[in-house]
Amino acid sequence: MYSRVQKILWNVVGLDYVLSGEMAAPYCIDWRGRYSGDALAVVLPGDKQQVAAVVAACAEHGLAIVPQGGNTSLCGGAVPLPHSQQIVVNLSRMNRIYALDTVNYTLTAEAGCSLAAIRKAAEQANRLFPLGLSAIAEYCEIGGNISTNAGGVGVLRYGNMRDLVLGLEVVLPDGRIWDGLRRLRKDNTGYDLKQLFIGAEGTLGIITAAVLKLFPRPRSVASACVAVRDPAVAVGLLAYLRENCGDKISAFEIISSSCLDLVLHHISNAHEPLSRRHDWIVLIELSDVLPVSLDLSLNYALQGFGEGILEFSVDSNERAASWWYLRKNISEAQKLEGFSVKHDVAVPLSHVAEFLTQANSALRAVFNGVRIVAFGHIGDGNIHYNVSMPDAVRNSVLIEKSQQVNRIVYDIVNGLGGSISAEHGLGQLKRNEICQYKDAIEMGLMRSIKFTIDPENLMNPGKVI
């Protein structure tokens, strides 16, 4: 059967863009090296018509499809399953920017455009596309960003990917093309269909193009590195700064001392951010479209906060860049250190400190000497909470007990009204876990939507639900 499909694929995209064997292998393992699988072929279409033809051929012959962009998923969502008869459809060749409208503040691009290319194009037009994933911006692609509802450091001010999309173009599981590339802020004509595909991780269709929101480009920026007594102080500080600085706050990130240990050990040109080490630091960024200095305003606001700040520094140049360099490289440092039990969780902002206290205490009571690497987007309640042991032998034992670790963390998150996946998605990693924490009605509705749009379950099976 596949030989017949292979000939169709060759005719559609050309011999050079149907990969198999060793040439396909790099597309079948994820960025972290945690998930790998097998594909009959990796197909690299050059436009939406080719995507549609590939999908139609696979649907006709009952072959499952794995949509893939830059393959930077952290949950195994963009790689085929082991021992599978699946076709990977990689959109990296589809990297054209169709239009940039500076009056309407929109950019229309194909799904294979890298996030870095989108941001650069906006900057060259004196506009901003605010999705902040600096560590992987050169590699991740906008279709994948949309499919996983990516977040990043700018969510506090600009929202998730879901808030940055006006329109989509999608190839449906039967090969039809839905053209929803509307550039409208208001369109009250029924169901907002694009929202079904944002965050669906390729289980409902393949996003081939999108209309993205742009914003005015800031002309002044200031950053602060602030040592705080504990996460509760950080939460209070954010509330205080929002009262005093308003929407100028564009990022508010928390970093534990254990994060700095890993970055300073593994990453070159990384330096201590303050005069001495503290258990917790917060990185803050203010930005404004007005060409005025924000350093004094930020410094004044921090001075007026009161108790709980142990030390702080404000800068808008090289020192500020060095602070954000630390934040950018935490994930890379963890990767170099070795495996850990990772969690991408969200709780209401008012419960962030409570989550950290409860989770730290619960894990330390069960796993003596456990190392907790906690950091993330405290401004929107999203904490990356990673658990390991400081030596390889004990760490391998902990990894074997990852389900026990997950249950401790997720039960606390759930009890605080949170989510077990804030911005990374479900993929393979949390496909089973989510059934423990989502309401049965909600899971039923998700399955109904999946069956309605993809009744043969050919679009990225084994992921999400």
UniProtKB/TrEMBL annotation:
Domain FAD-binding PCMH-type: 35-217
Swiss-Prot/TrEMBL keywords: FAD, Flavoprotein
Annotated GO MF terms: catalytic activity; FAD binding
Cofactor list: FAD
InterPro entries tied to this protein: FAD-bd_oxidored_4_C (IPR004113), FAD-bd_PCMH (IPR016166), FAD-bd_PCMH-like_sf (IPR036318), FAD-bd_PCMH_sub1 (IPR016167), FAD-bd_PCMH_sub2 (IPR016169), FAD-linked_Oxase-like_C (IPR016164), FAD-oxidored/transferase_4 (IPR051264), Oxid_FAD_bind_N (IPR006094)
PROSITE patterns per the UniProt record, alphabetical: FAD_PCMH (PS51387)
Keyword field contains Flavoprotein: yes
Pfam families, per the entry: FAD-oxidase_C, FAD_binding_4
Keyword hit for DNA-binding: no
Gene Ontology BP terms: respiratory electron transport chain
Protein family per UniProt: Belongs to the FAD-binding oxidoreductase/transferase type 4 family.
Record-given protein name: FAD linked oxidase domain protein
Organism: Candidatus Nitrotoga fabula
